[in-house]
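in:
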């Protein structure tokens, strides 16, 4: 068995296998375009690789996506080997190929200095716990926007642009500084997170999905921002930030956005809300549940990490 980078015809064979599991409504052609476009972003070219375990004849046994995220964990700064889209080809299952692929990828990451490995799993904890991964507690919540009798506040909310990225990354660093684990964001990482969501919405069937990115300014600089995905089920708050620790600007922005169409009912808004992130006075959180996708970590240098509730700062747009 050999570990290879999946490109060209080999990559298309892998996408044929992963498409039924993760297409989420995209056509097969759009699914291929979406994956290819992520690799063409500046961050994706350097930080995202599709890998496959193949047999001597070149047949695919298992595959995954490997990411390289800058992180801070327990006051140490370094990088995380992110693992996503782990899949064994159906006819080769129950032979340990996925485990062998993961272990080989993590051995390479440890040799290259990665502090930690992270993955999201839809199949639950037991399988990956056997490989040394530990669940990280996270909350998914409903975000309730409170509109007073006078309606939404009179504040300017505009579309976000690339010139806002530096200010947004600074907000993220400030708001996440007190937590034990967080991604270290730079403009290229933020560009990738937004581009991935925009591409997905743009390649979906017309009218089914939309991504919105808004900021509120103070002077000429973004002082608060929000990224929202929309579909027929409501809104997903992908990420947000506010220079003000109380989050009053963010709360006002969501009031403005929720009141854009007063004849319609307020949308359902779901979010992965970091426990350390202050809830703005105009908002309340309810219906706390565990996310469907379990986030897990495995230490690659030093002792295992034991992160409790409130020690992780992670938004839905950080999903990989």
């Amino acid at each position: 068995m050999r570990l290879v980078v999946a490109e060209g015809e080999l990559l298309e064979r892998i996408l044929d296998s992963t498409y039924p599991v993760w297409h989420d409504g995209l056509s097969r052609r759009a699914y291929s375009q979406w994956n290819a476009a992520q690799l063409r972003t500046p961050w994706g070219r350097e930080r995202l690789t599709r890998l496959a375990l193949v047999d001597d004849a070149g047949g695919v046994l298992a595959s995954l996506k490997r990411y390289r995220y800058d992180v801070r964990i327990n006051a140490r700064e370094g990088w995380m080997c992110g693992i996503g889209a782990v899949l064994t080809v159906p006819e080769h299952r129950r032979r340990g190929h996925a485990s062998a692929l993961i272990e080989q990828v993590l051995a390479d990451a440890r040799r290259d200095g990665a502090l930690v490995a992270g993955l999201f799993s839809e199949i639950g904890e037991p399988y990956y716990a056997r490989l040394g991964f530990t669940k990280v507690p996270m909350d998914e919540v409903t975000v309730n926007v409170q509109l007073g009798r006078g309606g939404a506040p009179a504040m300017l909310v505009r579309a976000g642009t690339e010139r806002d990225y530096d200010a947004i990354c600074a907000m993220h660093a400030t708001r996440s500084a007190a937590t034990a684990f967080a991604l270290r964001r730079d403009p290229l990482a933020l560009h990738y997170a937004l581009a991935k969501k925009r591409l997905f919405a743009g390649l979906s069937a017309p009218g089914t999905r939309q991504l919105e990115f808004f900021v509120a300014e103070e002077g000429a600089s973004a002082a608060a921002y929000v990224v929202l995905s929309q579909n027929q089920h409501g809104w997903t708050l992908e990420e947000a930030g506010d220079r003000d620790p109380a989050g009053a600007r963010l709360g006002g922005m969501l009031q403005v956005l929720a009141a854009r169409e007063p004849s319609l009912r307020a949308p359902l808004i779901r979010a992965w809300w970091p426990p350390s992130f202050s809830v703005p006075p105009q908002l309340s959180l309810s219906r706390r549940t565990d996310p469907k996708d379990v986030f897990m970590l495995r230490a690659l240098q030093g002792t295992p990490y034991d992160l409790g509730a409130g020690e992780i700062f992670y938004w839905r747009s950080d999903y990989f």
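note: The chain is about 30% helix and 35% strand.
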